[in-house]
Design a protein that fits this description.
This protein has 14 helices and 17 strands. By secondary structure, it is of the alpha/beta class. The strands form five sheets. It has an eight-stranded parallel barrel with strand order 2-3-4-5-6-10-13-14, surrounded by six helices. The chain has a three-stranded mixed sheet with strand order 7-11-12, with helices on one face. Strands 1-17 form a two-stranded antiparallel ribbon. α8 runs antiparallel to α9, α12 runs parallel beside α13 and α13 runs parallel beside α14. The protein is globular and about 55 Å long. The protein starts with 6 loop residues before the first strand and ends in an 18-residue tail after the last strand. The structure holds 1-deoxynojirimycin (NOJ). The site of 1-deoxynojirimycin has 9 residues, from loops.
Length: 445
């Protein structure tokens, strides 16, 4: 990263954090909780999301803590299993709970960004085939409509699905996540199901927004993870092409065309798909350096390793702010939609990397804006250390540490660095002597 002067985030830019119900709420019963019960040992250290960080009960204090640090936006997910515990039975107290979360965000001056599906499913739907169930799009649209009715008045920014490509890869192609159905054919059927679910829910949200004269802005949170062939290998270059397109572009291209593109479809029109994206939610963490590998059939014959020239986070993912800038610019140029960075963050055991990571990645976003991209905001993953799927509580992505014994919250030094940006709109120079937390000492707001 080339050193430079402090940069400014634009007026009205949304800045805050993102989270997901299963990772923070506790007290859930869904397909992931059932996996925990039935297949102990899948999650590292036997960790459980049963309590998570008890955000369900503590959301007011948690949101107040984030708002107190100057955040102007908050992304969270609604848990379908909580809202519709039995098919067709909507739990009004659960809907009221999420209406309360939205209201709390508003009272605290944070724009809510609401995700409807963040990896987990009600068990009743999982039992009917989950996203493969031909009825899943209709059911998802009904649930979306119930949410829109309960708290849509106060919500402008919606995300139907979080990372459908990741669910397709990990739930189906590779099979480590529920529903553990490792099959390339099912992976394509899952992709098709998720695309139809998105289209159906987007239609419901748009209709509900139009009916109340307050247009809903709808997207997915797309996980962009460019596959970069190792230099000098022709096999890697050819090998990376198909998985890269399938993982990084198939869903978005299908949305833009309004059709189910090959290989999951034959170009058939999907009702409601065209025009279903009003902006582009972007989750970006890392690029993958890939090589051809004939043993990696579930990954379409590519395996990846971190670029040796880049630093790595505690999960071994390489860190490259330039990758975020490239992702924002290329998506914005290709799709001509405003981009919202709906996730970006770093697994960092001792909060040694996060301050620098934040400064460098925020600068990358501003540089992308200077390159011509329309960027709505930046939501850091995540506010509080939480349940990181198969990694359990071992991977620490939060600005705020959570004591696992007492659940007490302790903001980390990086939270203060981020707060500085949120409060002043100024991103300090990346190379300030004295380390990240000292960067603030020299800046006047
Ligand atoms: C993206 C996912 O949406 C989120 O659930 C996960 O915790 C982060 N990546 C970090 O792996």
């Amino acid at each position: 990263m080339v050193p430079g002067p402090p940069l400014r985030i634009p007026e009205g830019f949304l800045i805050g954090t993102a989270s997901a119900a299963h990772q923070v709420e506790g007290g859930l019963w869904n397909d992931w909780m059932r996996m925990e019960r039935d297949e102990p040992g899948r999650i590292k250290n036997g960790d459980s999301a049963a309590v998570a960080i008890d955000h369900f009960h503590r959301y007011r204090e948690d949101l107040a803590l984030l708002a107190g640090m100057g955040h102007t936006a908050q992304r969270f997910s609604v848990e379908w299993a909580r809202v519709e515990p039995e098919p067709g039975h909507f739990d009004l107290s659960a809907l009221r709970h999420y209406a309360g979360v939205v209201a709390a965000c508003r009272e605290l001056g944070m724009e809510p960004v609401v995700t409807l599906h963040h990896f987990t499913l009600p068990v009743w739907l999982a039992d009917r085939g989950g996203v493969l169930d031909p009825q899943a799009p209709r059911l998802f649209a009904r649930y979306a409509a119930a949410c829109a009715e309960a708290f849509g008045e106060e919500v402008r920014w919606w995300l139907t699905l979080n990372e459908p490509n990741v669910l397709m890869a990990l739930g189906y192609a590779e099979g480590q996540w529920p529903p553990h159905r490792r099959s390339p054919v099912l992976a394509l059927r899952a992709a098709a199901g998720l695309l139809r679910m998105h289209a159906a829910a987007a239609t419901a949200l748009h209709q509900s927004g139009a009916a109340r004269g307050r247009p809903a802005m709808v997207s997915i949170a797309h996980h962009e993870r460019p596959f970069r062939p190792v230099p000098g290998s022709l096999a890697a270059r050819f090998g990376a092409w198909a998985p890269d397109l399938l993982f990084n572009r198939w869903f978005l291209w299908s949305c833009m065309r309004g059709r189910m593109l090959p290989p999951a479809g034959r170009g058939e029109v999907v009702p409601g798909l065209r025009g279903s994206l009003d902006y582009l939610g972007l989750n970006y963490y890392t690029d993958e350096r890939v090589r051809f590998d004939w043993r990696a059939s579930s990954r379409l014959f590519v395996s990846s390793d971190p670029d040796p020239s880049l630093p790595r986070n505690s999960l071994g993912w390489s860190i490259d702010p330039g990758g975020l800038r490239r992702a924002v610019v290329s998506l914005s140029e290709e799709f001509r939609l405003p981009v919202m960075v709906t996730e970006n963050g770093v697994a960092d055991e001792d909060d040694e990397l996060r301050s620098g990571f934040l400064v460098d990645h925020l600068r990358a976003v501003v540089e992308a804006i200077d390159d011509g991209a329309d960027v709505l905001g930046y939501l850091h993953w995540t506010g509080f250390d939480n349940f990181e799927w198969l990694e359990g509580y071992g991977a620490k992505f939060g600005l705020v540490a959570v004591d696992r014994a007492t659940l007490e919250r302790h903001p980390k030094p990086s939270a203060e660095v981020f707060a500085g940006v949120c409060r002043t709109g100024v991103i300090p120079a990346p190379d300030h002597p004295g380390g990240a937390s000292a960067r603030w000492a020299c800046l006047s707001p």
